[in-house]
Amino acid sequence: MRAFVTGATGFLGSHVARVLADQGAELRLLVRPTSNLKNLEGLKAETTIGDLRDPASIEKAMAGCDTVFHVAADYRLWVRDPDEMYRSNVEGTRAILEAARKNAVRRVVYTSSVATIGFAADGSPANEDSPVALAGMIGHYKRSKFMAEQIAREAGRSGMQVVTVNPTTPVGEQDVKPTPTGRIVVDFLKRKFPAYVETGLNLVDVKECARGHVMALEKGRSGERYILGGENLTLKQILDTLGRITGLPSPKIKLPYVFALAAGVVDETITGRLLRREPRATVDMVRLGRKKMFASSGKAERELGWKMVPVEDALRRAVEWFRKNGYG
Question: HSE of 7 in the Cβ direction (CA atoms, 13 Å)?
Fold first, then answer.
């Protein structure tokens, strides 16, 4: 297999690349001239310069590859220029699929997000068939990923071999940015969690999630999507687990939604608009937290052979990696 991988310098993509390398695949990794290559250290792979916003560079970079893992995405919950996110996530996905078609690629695995799934107000686990529409997507990240996923799934239903995976919330080592999820761990290490809100997430070990991508390549049905998830945990349960791992105190004060929303408004206004820095809390983040993002991986278990594993080890590895690399 000669695999073309986008996003390999990032968190999840670096793990996907290493799983493929361990299985003997020849790798060609798309990187930008400004990419941080720390996550590629020790990885046997060819790198090629390109950009999701430059279709010609994508087509050239992909030449000669027979499979594609499109993991790259602009994953931020606040952006100064939303158009930039749509160019990367939506038009970038369109460019990847068109390049794959022109290069006669055998199969594409597209990494979407659990953010595109419809979540119930009562907190019951969502699945791939839960009702959802673009109007229900809160924030530019969710909207852009929803739009990109529709492009990928339509390609998979129209003759191309395209399988979509929907990771829940990956945790583990090598989260260099860090992602919004990684910032939860970093903020906890820095004791910036004086209180918590009543919300929940499905956490998945990033290493298992990467292996799930290869399962999707081998066993997934074209045009279908598969949730790759782990444990459904409230934010309080996550913070308590981090407390056990680190020995640091977990917050005991629950912040009412109205206060959390007010904090988001203030932080977004002062930090984002006035200081022009990324805020720690935004209105969209708080609105997202009104629903517990619990999910079921039953379809992946039935069709791909996916197995859910506890995430405490992944959280422990994340803590160790962040501490070792000077994040907290």
Answer: 25
- Residues whose CB is less than 8 angstroms from the CB of residue 153 and which lie 6 or more positions away in sequence, other chains included: 162, 164, 223, 224, 225
pLDDT for residue 257: 47
The two beta strands, 26-31 and 231-234, are unpaired
In sign, the C-alpha dihedral spanning 169, 171, 176, 179 is positive
The CA distance from 211 to 287, in Å, is 32
Phi, psi of 107 (to 5 degrees): -155, 145
Residue 325, token pair as written in the block: 């690399």
Q: Evaluate the CA torsion angle 177, 179, 182, 184 in order and state its sign.
A: positive
The pLDDT of residue 279? 55
pLDDT of residue 266: 45
Overall number of domains in the chain: 1
Provide the pLDDT for residue 79: 76
Q: Which range marks the domain in which residue 91 is found?
A: 2-172+204-230+294-309
Contacts of 262 (CB under 8 A, 6+ apart): none
Low-confidence stretches of the chain (pLDDT beneath 50): 257-266, 268, 275, 283, 286
Q: What is the pLDDT of residues 74-106, one digit of tens each?
A: 988 667 788 999 999 999 999 999 999 999 999
- Whether residue 289 lies inside any domain: the answer is no
Reported pTM? 0.91
Residue 150's CATH number: 3.40.50.720
Tally of CB atoms within 10 A around 241:
20
The predicted structure's pLDDT at residue 280: 60
SS (H, E, C) 94-125: HHHHHHHHHCCCCEEEEECCHHHCCCCCCCCC
